[in-house]
Structure formats: C-alpha cells, structure tokens
Specification:
The complex is a heterodimer of chains A (497) and B (328). Chain A is an alpha/beta fold. Chain A is 33% helix and 27% strand. Chain A is built from 17 helices and 24 strands. Chain A starts with a strand and ends with a helix. In chain A, 45% of the residues are buried. In chain B, a hairpin with a 5-residue loop joins strand 2 and strand 3. The chains are: A alpha/beta (497), B mainly alpha (328). At the A-B interface, helix 10, helix 11 and strand 20 of A face helix 9 and helix 10 of B.
C-alpha cells in the first residue's frame, strides 16, 4: 500500500505581518491527481513554493520517496523529480520547441550543440505522450495549449515523479482542455503524482481523485472527490465563520440617483462588454477571482489603460475619458491595489502626495503655496487619523495603512465624488483595516460613491450594498446584499462562458 | 558624525553638498601648495571660464536627470548652436542680438525634439539623445562646411556679447560677470525646481511616473518640458563658451556632456530621478573647472582631468547609492 510519494506535515510559514501557512498537511500518492483548492490568498501557491524550495519553511516536515527532504532551490527540486507547470509559461519564444525542452542540458557533439539529436529526443518524448508537435517549430508560433504540452514534455524529460499544475486551464480553449486531461490521465496511468491547483469545480470533479482544501493559510481537510459534491468543497473553501459582520440590507436610498453608468465597456481580453451602474452613496463591490478582469475594468474606466469601446455617463451626462486626467476632471479617483507602484510617491512628503491630484488649487501665481498645501495636508492627517510625525515626513516611512490614508487624502483633497478602491486593505493589518472600513462608510454617508474591488469575500459582504461578480473579463452576476451569501458569490465568480 | 549630520544648518544645506564644498576647498589648497602660480587671479578666472559653460549645460541637464532620463546631446547641441549662430554673425552679417537669440532657439529646437520623442513616443532617452547628438554634430558641420568659426574678439565689432563672460575695467581689472550670470540662472533654476508646478511634477514623475499619471497629471507635457529646458540651456552655454574660448570646431562637444552630467551627479542629483540639487550641480561644475585648471597649472597632460573626473564621479555615485540603500 506504500503508494505515498510525498507527505507534507505541519508546514508552517510566516512573513512579516502575515501567517501564510498554519500547520498545513498534504499527501500525494503515486498515480493520483490531487486537487489543491482554496480562495485567493488561501496559501496554495505558498505551499507549492515551500515544496519546490522557493521559500524555506519555518516548521514541519516534507517526506519525499521515504526520506525527509528540504530543497533550497527549484533546481534541487527539479533534480529530485518535482516539477511545476506554471500558469504563466516560462518559454523562450524565439527558440525551437526542442531547444526549449532541453535548455541548460543540451546534447553536445564535441563543443557544438547537436540539434539533430535534440529534435530526435524531443520527438520521442512527444510520442511517449501521444502529442503531435514538430520539435523544430518556434515556440512562439504554437498556441498556448501546445506550449503547455511542451512544458509537460519538459517535465517528463526531467524524469519527473510529481508534476504540479498551477491553474493549467486558465488560458485554454475547450478542446485544448480535453487534450490536456487526456495527457494528465495518461500521466496518472504512468504512476506519477499530480497536484492540480484550480478554481474550477467542474474540472476538479472530472479529473481529480482527491481534494485538499485550504482556507486562510490553514489546512481544512482532504476529501475523496468521488464522494463529495461541488457544494461540499465550496462550503469548506469559504468556511462558515465570518469574522466581520456582513451587511444585511443596503444603505442606499431607493431613489438615489445614478452617478456613474458604464455601458458595454471593452478593453482587451480582460474587459468584455462590462456594464453597470453606481448610485449616489453606494458601495458597489466587485468580486471575483484573481485575473477576473476587475482591476482591468477599473483601469479602463479611469483611462489608465486604453479602451476599445464603451460609453461612460457621469451624473447622466456622457463623458469622454481618454486618460486619467479626463477621469479626474469628472470627479473620479482611483486607489490602486498596488500603492507603492501606482498610488504614492514614496520618496516625497505627505503634503506633496496629498496635493498631487489638485496642485492647481494650491498655487500663488506661478509658485506653489506651500503654507496652504501643508495646511490642507495637516487637515486630512487629522481627519483621517493618519499616524505621521508631520506632513513633511516622507511617505516611505509610514506603515501600509497610513500610506493608504495618504492616497485617500489625495482624492479627498481633490474632492472626487466617485472613488474606486482597488483592494483597499491589501497588506494592511487588522486594526488599520477596520479604520479604512469606517472611513469608507463615512465617505458614502457624506454623499460619495464607491466602487470597491476586493478578493476577500468577507470584505465584500461586510462593505457592499450591491455586488457585481466577474469571471474572465465578463460580468457574471449582480447580487443585492440582502440576498448575497459566500456560496452564491463564489458560484457566480467561477461561472465560465 | 551623526551629530554633524543632524545639525540644523547642515541639514538645511545638505550634508553631501557641504562635503563637496569641502572637497572643492581642499582641492584649491592642494593645487596652491603644489603649484604656487595657482594662487594668481588669472588662474581663478580661467577655471571659472570652464565652469560657466559647463554650469549652464549642467543646470539644464539637471532637469532631465530629475525626471529619471538622460540627455547626451547637450555638448554637441552647444557646439551646433555656437557654430550656426557664429557663422551667421561673421559670414552673413546677421545682427549680434539676433544671433544670440538664434543660438538659444537652436538649443530649444533640439530640446523639443528630444522631449517629444521621449515623452510622447516613449523612446528611451539614452538612444534619443544619442541620435540627436549625432544630428547636432552633423548639422553644425554641414552648416559651416566643416570650417571652424571664430567669434569676434573683445573690442572688435560685435564683440559686445563678451560682457556675459568678463568685463575689463579701465584700469585693466577683469570682472567675472559670467559667474554672476551663472548664479542668476542657478537661482532661477532652483526656484523652478522647488517652488513651481513644473519643478514639482518633474521631480515627482522622476520618482514614480505612474503614480503621477494616475493622479490626473499630464506627465508627457512636464517630461517634455525638462528636455526643452535642457536644450535651451545648451544654447545659453554656447554663448558662454564662445565668450571664453572664441573658436568652435565642428564635430566635437561630446566630452562636455559627460562632464556636465558628472557635475550633476557629484552635486547629489540622483540618476534614477526624483532627487535633484541645483546648488550641488553648481558646486559640482566648480570642482570640474578647478580640476582642469589645476592639472594645466601643474603641467600635466590635459587628459588627466578626465581620469580624475571619472574617479570623482564613481565615488560620488557610490556615496549616493550607499546612503539611499541605508534609508530603504
């Protein structure tokens, strides 16, 4: 019965401020496809990174092929036979398929690379997997599905014993998914251990033998796929304990005017025909999985990225938003999910950051009125309760929550009426989180309207008056808060078209 | 050490700048000991001559470096401006005032070209300015048919522009008016950089371009402005150059880019953008001016100047990088 190839026991890992993994267990047998599921941030990727040596675990043991191991980098894990097929493929597009597969360990004849032999070996691999790919083709000319198969072939050529698939079907078409499943079944036949990370319940039901569920960095349990329903799995993923009180009724007046209306917004693959309305005084939650197109929608609406088509109405009037400048002019402010990259200028002071969007109001002739600037900055430091020794402090020296408050101050100084909060509490500790929530509630009470993008369902349920779900660039649902449950949201957020 | 750094006066002036000023003083003392002739007034005037045109170049390029970009065209643009306007003055009989304005305009045109390509076409400033450097060299040579141009001497007709560099009184004393102009320009630059919207946006977009753009600021316009200032200052530098050295040869000028940029970096302007110091730039070019004069005074080959400038730049950048690492 010793079919177990890998046992991870009590794996614990902390990062500054985050307990990413709490005593997580995972057991993989030979010849099984084992699903690893959980919401965004549940710790699936972290666990795999610990396994393959990208992160070092704080506690716990990893037993692989009967002995305890600890890989210090991916190379060691590879050599031992543990391979990851990544969501984003790591291929060199200008090289041939064969060269990609054997990169770093090319066959040589003397000092020269033996292309002929490499192509031959690649062909053998493809035969083994029943794949039809010409090894001399350029990688960049293949479809994503074919590229993924090359990656699998590469894993096999490394003599892999465990292959980890990280969201392998995210970019595949229906028929490509079928082909992939054929290969995975084949690998199972060959007694490999397969870890299958996915959000898609249908696929998990179809292809996997067992499911390990994670939530908030903790191990929830392992089920036999055949014996459990989709709902079993989902309810374990989202859990029954909600730490924050969810809103039960909308706080928006029934006759509240529409302040923002978006019609058939299109921008690239990630924003397809998105339409929605935002009422005055409303917090509109945008829920969805990573890569659902929520941030892309916000950025296209705000003019940060070019859009292909779509109409935007502010207070009933059609407006043309070509760049952030236009958006700001119409009273829209955007708080990015990545503050350091898109929100603040870390090397500048609190006051400089506070007036960044409205400097023209703080001028005296051609000169900046620094006195007035500092006064308004000070005013918002006080009203937002930002913890900083002075408004001259560089923002880099503030904590994440206080940096977020500086970004909020920037838009309040500008007096924006429509605020887009993209993951407003990411990387912020619990206390500051609550403060940001209170602040958002205060803002809508004062007549502002908020679009809140969040990957935390608990946050969505606590804050939103209405919820829009997105999946793969499309709007897949609109749920009023009085009817919303974690399960409903999760179901809508995983709807594929 | 920490005590000195936290002193109110030191904090206000900037520790790095004070160190650089001490280096300047120390260099002067060393040169004076090694070569007593160095104490003469003429030597100082000569060192200043070099610092003037370099100072204008460096002031301009400070704005570009503040955005996180680079402008390698300023030296050849300066020569191009001096060649064309000088040729018009001496060969075509265009009035002096018009020629001086043409010199500035030539600089502005190159600034607009660089700025437009970098800000609106998103070309890398390194490549763009290298291309316009070649264009400037070529245009200057073509316009003058590869002849060097000598601007009029003091006292000759149209020699009046020299008051921008030096004025000789009746009893023969030379007054370095160039220094006055350089400091005046530096003051204006410092005010633009620290007190106006343009300077604020230029510095901030050098720190985090996306954050400024997403705040609804027209970053392209302000980024381009930095290059326009840089180009125009190269036109100003052309007048300072011919006022001090009279003759301009076609096909040269690139070495001055490097020296001007070296001056900025020494003065504490960060090559990654976002941090710039006009005062530091001025002290930086003074160091370079003094260095080249000192080497001449001691009878060394001129090219040692480049070796020493290079070494000082490496040290300055090292200090800059180290101090920033510690902060983060």
């Amino acid at each position: 019965m010793d079919k177990v190839i890998l046992t991870m026991q009590g794996i614990d890992k902390s990062f500054p401020g985050v307990h990413a993994l709490e005593h997580v267990n995972l057991e993989i047998r030979k010849g099984e496809v084992h699903a690893l599921v959980g919401e965004n941030g549940a710790g699936k990727s972290t666990l795999m990174k610990v396994l393959t040596g990208i992160y070092t675990k704080d506690e716990g043991t990893i037993i692989y092929e009967g002995r305890e191991v600890e890989f210090s980098n991916t190379r060691e894990a590879q050599d031992a036979g543990i391979m990851i097929v990544h969501q984003e493929l790591n291929m060199l597009n200008h090289l041939t398929v064969a060269k990609n597969i054997f990169i770093g360990r090319e066959f040589m004849s003397g000092k020269l690379i033996d292309d002929k032999r490499m192509n031959l070996e690649a062909e053998k691999l493809f035969d083994l997997l029943n794949i039809k790919i010409d090894p001399t083709e350029k990688m960049g000319d293949l479809t994503v599905g074919k590229q993924q198969m090359c990656e699998i072939a590469k894993a096999i050529s490394h003599d892999a014993k465990i292959i980890i698939f990280d969201e392998p079907t995210a970019a595949l078409t229906e028929s490509e998914v079928e082909e992939l499943f054929k290969i995975i079944r084949d690998l199972r036949e060959k007694q490999l251990g397969i870890v299958y990370i996915s959000h898609r319940m249908d696929e998990i039901k179809e292809i996997t033998d067992r499911v390990t569920i994670m939530r908030d960095g903790a191990y929830v349990g392992t089920l036999n796929t055949e014996e459990s329903t989709k709902d079993d799995i989902i309810s374990r993923m989202v859990g029954h304990v909600i730490y924050e009180e969810p809103k039960s009724v909308s706080n928006v007046a029934p006759n509240a005017p529409i302040v923002l209306k978006v019609n058939n917004l299109n921008a690239g693959k990630m924003v397809r025909n998105v339409s929605f309305e935002l009422h005055k005084g409303e917090i509109l939650g945008f829920s969805g999985l990573m890569g659902a197109g929520r941030t892309e929608t916000a950025r296209a609406l705000f003019g940060a990225d070019p859009k292909e088509s779509g109409d935007v109405f502010v207070n009933g009037e059609k407006v043309e938003i070509r760049n952030p400048k236009d958006a700001v002019k119409h009273g829209i402010g955007y708080l990015s999910e990545d503050r350091k990259q898109f929100g603040i200028i870390t090397e500048k002071s609190v006051s400089v950051n506070s007036t960044m969007a409205s400097l023209e109001n703080y001028m005296k002739g051609i000169f900046i009125n620094k006195k007035k600037e500092k006064k308004i900055a000070q005013q918002y430091v006080e009203s937002l309760n930002t913890k900083t020794p002075s408004v001259d402090q560089l923002v880099v020296n503030l904590s994440g929550g206080n940096q977020q408050k500086v970004v909020i101050a920037k838009w309040l100084v500008r007096d924006c009426d429509i605020l887009i909060f993209d993951e407003p509490t990411r990387g912020i500790d619990v206390g500051a989180k609550n403060e940001i929530y209170q602040l958002m509630n205060k803002l809508v009470e004062s007549g502002k309207s908020i679009i809140m993008i969040s990957s935390e369902i608990a946050e969505i349920l606590r804050m939103s008056d209405r919820i829009i779900t997105m999946c793969e660039g499309r709007k897949t649902g609109e749920i009023s808060i009085s009817e919303a449950t974690q399960e409903k949201i999760m179901q809508a957020a995983t709807l594929r078209n | 050490m920490e005590k000195i750094k936290n002193n109110v006066f030191v904090k206000k002036a900037g520790f790095n700048k004070l160190v650089l000023a001490c280096v300047l003083l120390l260099m002067y003392i060393i040169f004076a000991i090694l070569s007593p002739s160095f104490l003469s007034y003429n030597r100082i005037l000569s060192a200043l001559n070099y610092a003037y045109f370099l100072g204008f170049l460096a002031l301009g390029v400070t704005f570009v470096i503040a955005t996180g970009g680079i402008d390698f065209s300023i030296g050849p643009v300066m020569f191009c401006a001096a060649l064309i306007s000088g040729n018009l003055l001496t060969q075509s009989g265009i009035p002096l005032a018009a020629c001086l304005i043409i010199s500035l305009l030539i600089g502005t045109v190159f600034g607009v070209l660089n700025g437009y390509l970098v800000a609106y076409w998103n070309l890398p400033s390194f490549i763009t300015s290298m291309a316009s450097m070649m264009i400037a060299k070529g245009v200057g040579s073509v316009f003058t048919k590869t002849q060097s141009v000598s601007w009029p001497q003091k006292g000759q007709a149209n020699g009046g522009f020299r008051v921008f560099v030096k004025v000789t009184t009746d009893n023969g004393t030379q007054i370095p008016t160039g220094l006055l102009f350089l400091l005046l320009f530096a003051m204006v630059c410092a005010i633009i950089l620290n007190k106006t919207k343009a300077g604020r946006y230029i510095l901030c977009l050098g720190s985090n371009r996306e954050a400024v753009r997403l705040s609804g600021v027209d970053v392209k316009k302000w980024e381009m402005l930095a290059y326009v200032i840089s180009g125009t200052m190269a036109g100003v530098a052309a007048i300072a150059y011919v006022g001090a050295y009279t003759t301009v040869q076609p096909g040269l000028g690139d070495i001055f880019n490097n020296e001007a940029i070296a001056g900025c970096v020494m003065g504490g302007t960060s090559m990654t953008g976002g941090i710039a110091s006009v005062g530091g730039t001025i002290i930086g070019v003074m160091v370079i001016g003094l260095l080249q004069e000192g080497i001449l005074a001691m009878g060394f080959q001129k090219d040692w100047q480049y070796v020493l400038t290079g070494l000082i730049v490496v040290i300055a950048v090292y200090v800059d990088v180290r101090s920033r690492k510690r902060k983060i």
